[in-house]
Request: fold
Amino acid sequence: MTTAVQYQNRQEAGVLNALGFLFLPVAVLATAQVWVLAVLGVLGILTVRAFHGRFALNTNKYLVLLVILFIGWAAATSLWAVNPNRAIGTTLRIALVCISIVVLIDARNRLGKEQRRKFGYWLVGGTVTGFFLTGALILSSGDGSTWFGESHLTGYVIDDLNRTSSAIALLVWPVAFVVARYWNRLAAAAVIVLGALYLFLLAPSTPLVAFGAGLAAFVIARFSNSLGKRFLLLLFAAAIVIVPFLGVLAPPLIDFLSTNLPFPQSEIHRLVIWQFAAERIYENPLFGWGLDAARAIPGGNEKLFLFMFNGAPETGQAMPLHPHNAMIQIWLELGLVGVALVGAIFALIVASIPESQSDRAGPATLIATTACAFTIAELGFGIWQGWWMATLGIVAVISMTVVTPGAPAPNSIDADAA
Reply:
């Protein structure tokens, strides 16, 4: 390797180190601006490459082809979308995120083993900083309701950390892997326990459920990498198959929740939204209503009955901006064509996860992170939100960087490193 290429790799490694260190602190202090961090990272990589005059990308051609087809289909749906201008704008945002991820993954692919080890150290340092900031904000909120037996944490600071909890749930697995590899398993277990504790204190249920899904996936994949990958595909298939049956499955679940929970407003509202979205899917099942049409879907502003509370009916909006379910939103807006393209992309990503008989922890970490991310996407945010797409992309880059098959022990030296 020439000196010029080594110098370029060191500069790109510096950009990625900064990205890994800053991710959780930014997710704590300004989660909605995570996309800015991703953009700055890409601009840093492109600036380095412009200086050296080297722009070639080494990517998975099949994955790039599928992503191009998906973006093309998303753009095509603007022809019949409820709001064509919004559909075009969202298509451009998706394209920008995809290009950014491709550039960051390509930069990750160029790192030597020693550089990836150093990246792990920067990642752990940033995560410790983020944990400290999160703890400080929790304490400064002055709200100890969980410790004192009250049902909910309240206060503007805690509410502002709802998105942060999802970032923590995703980051726990790659960080624990780094700690286990370069320190010890007991310290890695402490990272997982601390992450779970923060999720409990921050209170939102979706990250906790996602953490449980990630834990189950890790245990399965630790036993068998191939079985863990099948678990991911089963999760995806179940998320699709269940949609046509929501009209049958949701009512008994609503009855159960209203009977057994003190005030299940959020849970029941989510089920009612999914029922409403499924009904709209039936009207345009193949091609959908057009990208980002959920926020303007006909009937979305109606108030629907949820359950009775203290003798009075609780109601909720039929479609508050998005369905809070990635696959339902994709099917609603892009039809079965969009679902098929996303399914192919997901299957290719799962297939690319390596399998190892000698060291199952690395693949298990990727499988756990993927299960956690998919669960949050299925229960939480609008899939096209810029900060959320950027978060998924950065976590993917982080996970693939630290989980390196055959990575040397910490004291070894990579010939490609500085």
Remarks:
- Confidence is low (pLDDT under 50) at residues 144-156, 405-418.
- Residues 3-240+327-402 form one domain.
